[in-house]
């Protein structure tokens, strides 16, 4: 006889679990959209511990205090999925009222009609105006305002520069950079303990450094207004050769052919690099790892000591969903996030680059503190050299194409001009641009 | 599949109904929607204009596609074979140990599988591949020189395969161990009574009884490797020069690096359809074996 | 009579230990490294040359992880995973039994649907945007049930497949003798067949648990409210726009392994119990 065992409890447990989850559904379902609730998607968490998150929490508190009956509900998202998810939510009619859109995807978002005009922001506001602000202006109406501005530049170890007697703002030409990199490299027998200048060429959206800077400083625009690429210019070839020469001279790591952005920052944090390609917004993390006063932010030099080479700048464009039921209120909130008072909070508490031109003067000697000087450098570089791809053009994937050119020269020994032509052709073909 | 014990077609359908409903509604529904979307152009993420198979034609004309397919094939085969082979050895070894050491060994083996995918990949890269990691430092100290595995397509693929085995070993060991534990002991006793040597026991008793779990393991691992994004993305970045870019990574890059959501969707649907074909082939083979 | 001498056996035993030892070291290297780094101050986590022993120990990263909100997603994921295991096992056993023991019309198609679910579940991340639109259309987005339902669907195929394999290994005589005693199908399944399939159930339960626990993409896309977020999303937020926070990242990831180890201790017990002979007779 087969022994009986009472297994009913397991089934009961399963049913209980199902009932529990349904009960959970009732209690935890998204709250009904009450009047005066503004839903916002961002990568910040107002209950978080970072400076920027604390700044946001203060701004939300101030807004709710001045608008009784209004609640701001923040739903933190994963930053690299947020924009595609927003487009999907727009398509299903369930998007949040306020959204942070990455400036490089703004064109697609505007095309999809997902953002609505913000009455509380003026397109002609001189304090806020710059090329990114202009990219969110459509037919005289303002569809968003940039936050968390950043620009690609050079992270440098201020302490080691000082040791070597190099003033950070003395690096104005390519020759200055090469010279500094050579002097800052530290060798121990056969191994290099500290690289003078670290650059990386991975193919996961890695920002091209010297190559792109050289290209943008050249006479021919790298991208036509419709996005067609022209990369095989003499300046670009010189830039590529410059990049490779640093590696061949033993001043830049050859392994970095495969580093992505995070790897590069790890190397800098580990003290392997005296200087490295880096974006301004990541300086605070580097300060945590190597010391708050030891990180300087430098613009890319050029052949002309009076002007830096242009570099990519981007930001998060904060906008209002076109289908929002509380569009006016949401617009006011976006304007409040960008007010002069809020901007001061973003800068002093959050360590962000100012959004408004007037803020720099208003925060007094905040930028004089060595730990904050990078913000001033970043701000000035954005003004003098901030480059944005032609508005509305689809330039997706250009970074990977450019880095493939560099990898090709490094690994296969391809001729730089040919490599750039190949990259340009691949990019144009993929986008269907004729050349 | 064996003959049912008595009729009961209705009972049978009722038994599978809840499962099938869930699968159809939650898995096949979005898949059908994706296929529909792939036959249109996209505005944002919404289907706009019907274009038939145009998107597929564009995809198949993409010059990087053949190399991506080849890379994926190589990766999946190498990773699956390595993982299953190692897992079988480990399961056999763990099976021969007394309970407590076996438990401890198993926990040690499953930890990489238990940790979240991205963190695991990051740790593998940091520890084994980066020159900031202990492995290369130790190798250099022992006099093997400091070579970056990612500078060379072959070693980069080897590193990727190793990472896949590392991450999935736990799953495979558990599956094969479950299969081992289900082999009735009296079969072993009978074999010993007949005077079979250790190796003969393995070949004539263990292996045939393990055929089922081994097959499940191989198929599931192959499919998992085929679809794994975080390993090629984090461990090798798809390089050098795209030599470790698998289909899954290509889909991710298209969506998040090139902002080509349409292309990514089309490739994803194509991959899924190929997967289905492979599954159908597997089912055919099994049905013929059972018949 | 065993011909193998005592020395030969000990030699083999030694080899087994050596092999397992090497495997464990290779396997655990990165994990131990991560664990040690989670207790290292930020200034020293990434350093060159790499340090075997951390220079100082700190709990700051664990504090940060908690302050950033770790307990809530942890609790949520426990619920999600628990529900997934229970329901997947229940529906999976029913399905597996029918697929193996009952000749019903459309059985082949059902089996094909189940098997094809594996690549669908495995590659679901690539289709997440259509899935999002689809879930919104079903009004399931951002509800407490969407993730458990999705996780059950993702893991049902393998659960069914494993259980069907296990049931398939049991002879039909078991069913027949029970039927002679007047037992119905459900009784046969739950009281006779499944108890003998403990290893398979243990494996299936563990896979369903880990499948639900480690899932990231659906968890970040299909829900928005902080109260519904699973643990992986909380961990992933440490790889933010402003940089990779190794300390809190490793701290939260280390904490997140603990429930999986616990699940292994619970379900793994089923794995250890071998099949005793004698159940087939009589």
What does this structure look like?
The complex is a heterotrimer of chains A (435), B (291) and C (282). Chain A is α+β, with helices and mostly antiparallel strands and 435 residues long. Helices cover 43% and strands 15% of the residues of chain A. The N terminus of chain A is likely disordered. The radius of gyration of chain A is 25 Å and the shape is globular. Chain B folds into 2 domains: 36 residues, no CATH class; 227 residues, MetI-like fold. Chain B has a two-stranded antiparallel ribbon. In chain B, helix 1 runs antiparallel to helix 12, helix 3 packs across helix 7 and helix 3 runs antiparallel to helix 9. The longest helix of chain B has 31 residues. By secondary structure, chain C is an all-alpha fold. Chain C has 2 domains: 35 residues; 216 residues, MetI-like fold, CATH 1.10.3720. Chain C is built from 13 helices and 2 strands, in the order H-H-H-H-H-H-H-H-H-H-H-H-E-E-H. In chain C, strand 1 and strand 2 form a beta hairpin. Chains in contact: A-B, A-C, B-C. At the A-B interface, helix 3, helix 4, helix 10 and helix 16 of A face helix 11 of B.
Counted by DSSP, the helix tally of chain A is 17
Radius of gyration of chain B: 23 Å
* Computed structural class of chain A: alpha+beta
How would you characterize the largest beta sheet of chain A?
9 strands, mixed
* Low-confidence region ranges of chain B: 1-6
According to DSSP, the number of beta strands of chain A is 13
Shape of chain B: flat
Judging from the principal axes of the Cα atoms, what is the shape of chain A? globular
Largest sheet of chain B: 2 strands, antiparallel
Total helical segments of chain B: 12
Describe the oligomeric state of these chains in a short phrase: heterotrimer
- Top CATH class of the largest domain in chain B: Mainly Alpha
Strand order of the largest sheet of chain B: 1-2
For the record, the count of structural domains of chain B works out to 2
């Amino acid at each position: 006889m087969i022994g009986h065992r009472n297994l009913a409890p397991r089934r009961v447990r399963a049913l209980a679990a199902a009932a529990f989850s349904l009960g959970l559904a009732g209690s935890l379902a998204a709250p009904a959209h009450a009047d005066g609730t503004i839903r916002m998607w961002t990568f910040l968490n107002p209950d978080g511990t970072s400076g920027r998150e604390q700044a946001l929490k203060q701004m939300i508190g101030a807004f709710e205090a001045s608008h009784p009956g209004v609640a701001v509900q923040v739903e933190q998202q994963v930053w690299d999925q947020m924009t595609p998810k927003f487009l999907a939510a727009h398509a299903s009619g369930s998007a949040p009222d306020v959204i942070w859109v990455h400036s490089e995807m703004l064109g697609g978002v505007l095309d999809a009609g997902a953002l609505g005009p913000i009455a509380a922001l003026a397109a002609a506001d001189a304090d806020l105006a710059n090329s990114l602000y202009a990219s969110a202006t459509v037919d005289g109406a303002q569809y968003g305002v940039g936050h968390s501005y950043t620009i690609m530049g050079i992270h440098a170890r201020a302490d080691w520069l000082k040791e070597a007697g190099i003033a950070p703002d003395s690096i104005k030409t390519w020759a200055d950079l090469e010279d500094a990199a050579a002097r800052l490299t530290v060798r121990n027998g056969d191994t290099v303990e500290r690289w003078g200048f670290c650059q990386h060429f991975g193919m996961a959206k890695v920002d091209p450094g010297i190559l792109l800077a050289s290209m943008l400083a050249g006479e021919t625009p790298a991208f036509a207004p419709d996005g067609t690429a022209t990369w095989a210019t003499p300046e670009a070839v010189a830039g590529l050769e410059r990049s490779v020469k640093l590696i061949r001279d033993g001043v830049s790591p050859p392994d970095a052919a495969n580093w992505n952005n995070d790897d590069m920052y790890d190397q800098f944090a580990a003290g392997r690099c005296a200087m490295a390609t880096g974006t301004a917004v990541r300086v605070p993390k580097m300060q945590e790892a190597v010391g708050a006063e030891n990180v300087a932010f430098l613009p890319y030099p050029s052949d002309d000591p009076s002007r830096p080479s242009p570099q990519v700048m981007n930001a998060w464009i904060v906008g209002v969903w076109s289908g929002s039921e509380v569009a006016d209120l949401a617009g006011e909130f976006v304007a409040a996030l960008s007010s002069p008072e809020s901007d001061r909070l973003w800068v002093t508490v959050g360590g962000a680059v100012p959004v408004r031109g007037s803020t720099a003067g208003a925060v007094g000697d905040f930028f004089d503190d060595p730990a904050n000087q990078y913000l001033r450098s970043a701000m000035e570089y954005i003004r003098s050299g901030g480059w944005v791809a032609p508005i509305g053009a689809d330039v997706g994937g250009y970074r990977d194409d450019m880095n493939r050119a560099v990898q090709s020269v490094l690994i296969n020994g391809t001729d730089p001009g040919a490599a750039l032509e190949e990259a340009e052709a691949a990019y144009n073909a993929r986008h269907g641009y004729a050349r | 599949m064996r003959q049912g014990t008595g009729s009961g077609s209705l009972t049978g359908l009722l038994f599978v109904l809840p499962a099938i409903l869930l699968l159809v509604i939650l898995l096949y529904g979005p898949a059908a929607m994706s296929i529909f979307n792939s036959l249109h152009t996209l505005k944002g993420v919404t289907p706009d204009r019907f274009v038939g198979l145009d998107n597929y034609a564009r995809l198949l004309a993409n010059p990087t596609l053949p190399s991506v397919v080849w890379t994926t094939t190589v990766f999946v085969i190498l990773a699956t074979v390595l993982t299953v082979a190692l897992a079988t050895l480990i399961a056999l070894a763990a099976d021969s140990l007394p309970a407590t050491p076996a438990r401890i060994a198993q926990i040690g083996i499953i930890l990489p599988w238990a940790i979240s995918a991205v963190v695991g990949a990051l740790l593998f890269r940091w520890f084994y591949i980066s020159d900031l990691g202990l492995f290369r430092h130790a190798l250099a100290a022992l006099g093997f020189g400091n070579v970056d595995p990612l500078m060379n397509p072959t070693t980069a693929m080897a590193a990727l395969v190793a990472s896949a085995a590392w991450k999935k070993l736990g799953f495979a060991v558990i599956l094969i161990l479950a299969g081992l534990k289900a082999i009735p002991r009296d079969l072993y006793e009978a074999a010993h009574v007949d005077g079979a040597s250790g190796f003969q026991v393995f070949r004539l008793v263990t292996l045939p009884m393990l055929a089922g779990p081994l097959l499940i393991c191989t198929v599931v691992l192959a499919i998992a490797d085929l679809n794994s994004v975080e390993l090629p993305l984090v461990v090798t970045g798809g390089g050098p020069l795209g030599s470790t870019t698998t289909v899954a990574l290509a889909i991710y890059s298209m969506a998040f690096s090139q902002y080509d959501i349409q292309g990514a969707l089309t490739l994803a649907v194509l991959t899924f359809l190929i997967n289905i074909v492979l599954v159908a082939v597997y089912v055919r083979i099994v049905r013929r074996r059972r018949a | 009579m065993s011909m193998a001498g005592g020395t030969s056996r000990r030699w083999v035993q030694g080899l087994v230990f050596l092999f397992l030892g090497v495997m464990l070291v290779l396997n655990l290297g990165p994990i131990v490294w991560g664990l040690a780094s989670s207790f290292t101050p930020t200034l020293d986590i990434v350093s060159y040359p790499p340090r075997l022993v951390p220079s100082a120990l700190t709990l700051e990263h664990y504090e940060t992880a908690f302050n950033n909100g770790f307990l809530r997603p942890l609790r949520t994921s426990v619920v999600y995973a628990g529900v997934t295991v229970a329901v997947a096992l229940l529906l999976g056993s029913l399905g597996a039994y029918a697929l193996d023991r009952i000749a019903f019309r459309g059985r082949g198609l059902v089996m094909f649907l189940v098997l094809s679910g594996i690549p669908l579940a495995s590659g679901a991340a690539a289709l997440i945007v259509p899935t999002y639109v689809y879930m919104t259309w079903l009004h399931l987005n951002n509800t407490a049930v969407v993730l458990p339902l999705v996780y059950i669907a993702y893991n049902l195929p393998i659960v069914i497949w494993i259980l069907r394999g296990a049931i398939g290994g049991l002879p039909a005589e078991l069913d027949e003798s029970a039927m002679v005693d007047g037992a119905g199908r459900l009784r046969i399944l739950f009281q006779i067949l499944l108890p003998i399939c403990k290893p398979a159930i243990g494996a299936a339960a563990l896979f369903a648990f880990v499948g639900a626990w480690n899932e990231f993409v659906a968890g970040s896309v299909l829900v928005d409210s902080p109260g519904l977020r699973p643990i992986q999303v909380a961990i992933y937020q440490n790889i933010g726009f402003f940089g990779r926070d190794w300390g809190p990242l490793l701290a939260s990831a280390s904490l997140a392994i603990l429930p999986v180890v616990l699940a292994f201790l619970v379900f793994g017990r089923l794995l250890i119990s071998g099949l005793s002979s004698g159940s087939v007779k009589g």
